[in-house]
Design brief:
Layout (H helix, E strand, L loop, with lengths): L1 H5 L5 E12 L2 E13 L2 H14 L5
Antiparallel strand pairs: 1-2
Length: about 60
């Protein structure tokens, strides 16, 4: 429980996997967290800047 209290109200980046599962006659989607890490705002900002440069309409 202490781990959840430690990351309460903090921004995390989750890498998830989704899988379709059949249980009886019903289909459902199961989600699994593969990795969770704190956000690195500097690298995320750089990625966004590169994506914006790809949409440069001045060229």
């Amino acid at each position: 429980m202490a781990t959840f209290e430690e990351v309460n109200c903090k921004k995390l980046n989750f890498r998830c996997r989704a899988k379709m599962d059949n249980y009886g006659d019903a289909q459902r989607v199961r989600y699994q967290v593969m990795n969770a890490s704190f956000l690195d705002f500097k690298s995320e900002g750089n990625k966004l800047a590169e994506m914006i440069k790809q949409y440069d309409i001045n060229s």
